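Protein Entry — a single chain follows
Next Lines — sequence and tokenised fold
***
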Amino acid sequence: MDSSIGNLFASVTAAYNRAITAEASKDESSPDEQGTEWWILGEYYDRSRARERREKEISIMWWSYRSNFLEMRPYGFTSDTGWGCMLRCSQMLLCQSLSLHRPSITPETYLSLFADVPGKAHPFGIHGMCRAGLGRDKFPGEWFGPREGCFVVKDLVGESKMGGGLDLKIIVAGEGCIYRDNVVEEMEKEEMGEEVRRRPLPPPPPISSDHDPLFNPPPSLTGTKEWSKSLLILIPLRLGVNGIDGRYRKNIVEAFSMKSFCGMMGGTPRHAIYFYGIDKGGGGLRGKDPHTTQFAPGRGREGKVKITKEYRDSCRGGDVTVRLESIDPSLALSFYVRGRDEFEAFVREAREGVAGEDLEGGKRLFSVEDRAPDYGGDLGLEGCVDGVEDGEDASEDEWEFI
């Protein structure tokens, strides 16, 4: 696809998305009209804290469509308008997690790290996102879903060498279940040398009648060894068929109230939004909508990104309110924990809420188990399937045609 065709496609899809946004906004109320009590990234805001809530929303970086960036060869794109919204939501989720992980990072640094310029100095720009997508068989111009967005973030952070390493590990719970033993193993193997890492891990101890792993976890899960890295947990989910099942509503609100909550990627088909807040009743979601096309930042003679006032201002805003029942059931939740203690606190909080059994008819969002199932075990079924007796010749019926 050459540059002219790519940009023509971008302009057509931009018009399409503007029409969708205008239609979706007709029946939407302002945040204060929908509710006066909100959960924003794990923190509660009532009417008396409306100003603080707004300041918090403004502080969340907004990454939107960009145009006039260096051409993505050989695909011809100089704009991601119409197809890059989930990648932009992935940027916002990653940027929010980094703001928790490295509070000392300045806004100017983020403006460089996420700039839409190819090169190692800008690993989280649209070029880096698309490069990671290629590793997942997703090409520029194709729409990414929440699941692909999770793996793009995982792959990008895994290969980042920023500042000698981010000291941030990302785990994608692709089955809708977090296995504690897998998490502990993944985090602790980072502390091992290369030789030790290659050794096979011992099998888990057998579970006897007097050993219930829910109440008496195996010794491997009760260690106190602290992790040198922090952890970002990404959980892609599907919470319904044509829309979100109403029985999830209570626990979705619960997820937004968790201390470790780092945002949700979702929206409608081909219209992704990064959600950071929800009203107390669960009717309205607050988020950053990337469907505004702005110019990519310029570069100086040495190739460095120009951090202008216009560029700074273009990364603030984009806030929208949408109804929970209007979004697609495919979404992804994220949780950031600074170390092992915070991870165990997250496990306890999840089991008491979003990952627990709701006796009021609700449905849990995901599961947290101590150990992953062993699919390689011997079921002891040898000889139980074959119905041929010893000494009996089955060759007569083996190739019978009907």
Remarks:
- The radius of gyration is 24 Å.
- The chain has a mean pLDDT of 82.
- The chain has one domain: 3-190+224-374.
